[in-house]
Amino acid sequence: MATSCTHFGCSRTKTYKTKYIEPFINRIMKIIENLARRCYRAEKIAEQAEAKIKPLQADNERLKSMLWNKNLALSKAEVKARDFNKIQKHFGRETINQWLKEIIRLGKNRSKSNRDIER
């Protein structure tokens, strides 16, 4: 149905608008809705990921501290092992074994005497 202003091309303009412009705008609106939905989903996923990451970061810091302490203890043990190897090399393995047996024997005697005192 043609409008009353045909001398300005209103009927052509109306058909162009309904044929091309409105479908184009509808497609753009659907794209915008889809993008908004995706953005909302992405924000929710980011929040969930952040909630999962926080405890993991805290565990990571705790484990870093533990690792540092373990490395320190290992370093100290390595120094003691080197010292022991030097002593063993100087006095010999048999002498060291005799000393260790004597220390164990004295430790057992000491624990027996402690039990006797407690009674």
Care to describe what's here?
The model has no long low-confidence stretch (mean pLDDT 86). The chain is rod-shaped and about 115 Å long. The longest helix is centred in the middle third of the chain and has 82 residues. With 119 residues, the chain is mainly alpha-helical. The protein contains two helices and no strands. 91% of the residues lie in helices and 0% in strands.
In short:
This protein is mainly alpha-helical and 119 residues long. It has helices at 10-91, 93-118.
What is the strand tally? Answer: 0
Treating each run of at least 4 consecutive H or I residues as one helix, how many helices?
2
Helical residue percent band: over 70%
**Would you tell me the overall average pLDDT?**
86
Uncertain ranges: none
Strand-helix topology:
Elements (H helix, E strand, L loop, with lengths): L9 H82 L1 H26 L1
Helix pairs in contact: 1-2
Structure keywords:
single chain; 119 residues; mainly alpha; 91% helix; rod-shaped
